[in-house]
Design a protein that fits this description.
- The longest helix is centred in the C-terminal third of the chain and has 14 residues.
- The chain is built from seven helices and ten strands.
- The chain has two domains: 127 residues, D-amino Acid Aminotransferase, Chain A, domain 1 (2-Layer Sandwich); 54 residues, no CATH class.
- The strands form three sheets. It has a four-stranded antiparallel beta sheet with strand order 4-7-5-6, with helices on one face.
- It is 32% helix and 26% strand.
- The chain is globular.
- By secondary structure, the protein is an alpha+beta fold.
Length: 215
């Protein structure tokens, strides 16, 4: 392989890094019934200590559970609720049905848009959804975390990244925050793609894959 190819991380690739008594499974996506999820599950059934645990990735991608676990650990989270119809405008809205993913969310800024969003994500009222209030002037920001570390980010974000990693143990994850008045509150955790990584994030991930970084 030439130097250029050595720096490529192929789509859907799964890496396993053993450090101490823990096997770390690295992937773009750990959703239920995906190959990475079953990889983790098979190792657990074999009696191995695996990170992330299968239960942790399930919790991480269900918004209310994710936020509750983060809040219990002292991480600021956005104000949220569960509903079948009501949305406090403006808000961020996530579906909670079987087919919903944390990667898909909607920003609702007016009642008319809210009605259309609710109709879509509830399948005409069949399923609930999670809403999060958006303070005036707030923005939504996404940050990629690599083994609990970020690249050139705010000190508060770096600290939250490390604590989120301690809770869920996910090596590669996208953290979605609501930023208001200079403060960050966690909105969700979502999968990410290797292609979304910056050069610095890719180098950091490769250092872990090659066992050159301390976990």
């Amino acid at each position: 392989m030439n130097g250029k190819k050595e720096h490529q991380i192929l789509k859907d690739a799964i890496f396993e890094v053993k450090r101490g008594d823990t096997l770390h499974v690295i992937s773009e996506n750990y959703y239920y019934k995906t190959e990475p999820y079953y990889t983790i599950l098979s190792h657990e059934m074999a009696g191995l200590r695996v990170a992330p645990a299968s239960a942790s990735v399930l919790d991480a991608y269900v918004i209310p559970i994710c936020l509750e676990k983060a809040a219990l650990a002292g991480i600021p989270v956005s104000e949220w609720g569960i509903s079948h119809s009501f949305i406090p405008v403006p808000a961020v809205v996530y579906g909670l049905n079987y087919f919903a993913t944390s990667s898909e969310f909607f920003v609702v800024t007016d009642p008319d848009t809210g009605k259309e969003v609710v109709k879509h994500i509830t399948n005409k009222g069949k399923y609930p959804f999670c809403y999060q209030r958006l303070p005036e002037g707030a923005s939504i920001e996404s940050v990629i975390s690599v083994f609990g570390r970020t690249f050139e980010q705010d000190q508060a974000i770096e600290e939250y990244s490390g604590r989120i990693y301690e809770i869920f143990g996910i090596p590669l994850v996208n953290m979605v925050f609501i930023r208001s008045n200079g403060c960050f509150s966690l909105s969700s955790l979502t999968p990410t793609r290797y292609t979304r990584l910056s050069e610095g994030e890719r180098s950091l991930l490769q250092a872990y894959i090659k066992n050159q970084a301390f976990l």
